[in-house]
Amino acid sequence: MFTFSLSMSISPGPVNIAILSSSMNYGFKRTFAFISGATIGFTLLLAAVCFGLYQIIVIYPILLDIFTVLGTLLLVWIGWNIFRAKAEKISVKDNAQIPTFMQGALLQWLNPKAWIAAVAGTAIFSSEHSAYILLLFVLIYFVVCYLSLMVWGIVGEKLAVFLNQGNRAHIFNMLMGIVLIMISLQMCWGYFHP
């Protein structure tokens, strides 16, 4: 359970790239609410899948298709905004652009990687004692996810020191925007063409 949670949480994905970019532009402390929202949002998604939604998705698999397409569209839009972002010194008046707790939580519910992780993990760890096993899985995933997303936030803040020279930050934002768009499209393509 720990290995599955770590591999899914620490590997590059849409939320991780958004955290990296936000921490680079706004700092770890200002991004922490988004990290917390993303962690709690995913944990709620995982718990919902483990304790009920999984059975609905098995009966109506088109729901997962819909979430995948809507999530991909949202993530491409976010990637485009990161790509276009001007990397300048952040001032207090820019606080409205800092990702919020609620945005982090909602983003996980539209994140194809989050749905794939939740459904796959539920399928793998279901058993005849599944209520206890799945509860343990949700708790382990919460801790691992939080720590993994914090690592991405810390790395983003550390990168800001290097990128705060010339136009490096702008180039980095363009690169992160492209990476987010490509990861999102690749996950959607991989979902529909396994």
Automatic annotation (TrEMBL):
Gene Ontology MF terms: amino acid transmembrane transporter activity
Transmembrane segments: 32-56, 62-83, 131-155, 171-192
Membrane topology: Multi-pass membrane protein
Pfam families in the record: LysE
A cellular component term, taken from the record's GO annotations: plasma membrane
GO term, biological process aspect, one: cysteine export across plasma membrane
Principal location class: membrane
UniProt keyword annotations, A-Z: Cell membrane, Membrane, Transmembrane, Transmembrane helix
Stored InterPro entries: LeuE-type
Cellular localisation: Cell membrane
Entry protein name: Cysteine/O-acetylserine efflux protein
Originating organism: Acinetobacter gerneri DSM 14967 = CIP 107464 = MTCC 9824
